[in-house]
Amino acid sequence: MVVDGLGVVIATYNEAGNLPRLVDALQALPLPDGARIYVVDDNSPDGTSSIARKLGSHYGNISLITRPARLGLGSALVDGITAAVKDGCGRVLTMDADLSHDPRDVPRLLEAAGETGADLVQASRYTPGGRNSHSGWQATASRLANGVFRLVLGTPHETTTNFRVFSRRLAERVVREGRGRHFEFQPECVLIAMKHRMPIVEVPIAFTERAGGRSKLGPVQQLRLLGFFLWALIAFRPGLGRFSPRRPAA
Ligand SMILES: Nc1nc2c(ncn2[C@@H]2O[C@H](COP(=O)(O)OP(=O)(O)OP(=O)(O)O)[C@@H](O)[C@H]2O)c(=O)[nH]1
Ligand SMILES: [Mg+2]
Question: Right CATH number for 6-235 from 3.90.550.10, 3.40.50.300, 3.40.50.970, 3.10.129.10?
Fold first, then answer.
């Protein structure tokens, strides 16, 4: 049982080349005592699970959840967050495995969570000071979708990030109330936090291209995400309450 510890949840699908680099970088950080890493792998054909198992026997603080087939990022995050909450973690950090999220930003996110007590601390490429190395129409579409969402629903600058720290009470909420099994789980978490008037803080980051391997956000997932945005714009507008940013101390 990890009381008041940190759970780091990493969903993986075909990230064999990236996972060891990420885990080594995380282990080199000054993480809180008792921190535990939860890798949720969907039986990746490239053997990510067996690599995670080896990393687990080397470091000793890694739990591996292997699921039978590719079941979606949102459902993987829910399974990882559930395991962390069950182990008694006081905070849960989620991040991508592909090194788009720089592990060196983790201490800044944890500091912001500690200083502000916010239920959701988000690393954002769109908040002032943030940067995005993606370009092209997908980057424009992502920026536009986040901008419209913000304008209509009063959400933070970015709702499509998976680099986040959840308080335990929000982690419990998203597990219970989240319905999105795929990438739409990411904006859904923001809406759940806002629905319960839980404070959200954004921390600027530089988002970089994945280090290797292929994107899992293909056309089907992009359409699904777009569908969620359109649905949420209609379904959530009344009475959601606007995002009121609380800035971490400089
Ligand atoms: N377990 C599991 N993990 C997934 C699934 N889909 C995506 N992931 C993981 O979720 C994280 C985000 O997926 P990415 O493919 O990096 O998505 P993205 O960052 O929006 O797209 P890129 O910028 O092109 O990389 C990565 O660690 C993936 O391996 C899934 O169905 N199951
Ligand atoms: Mg990625």
Answer: 3.90.550.10
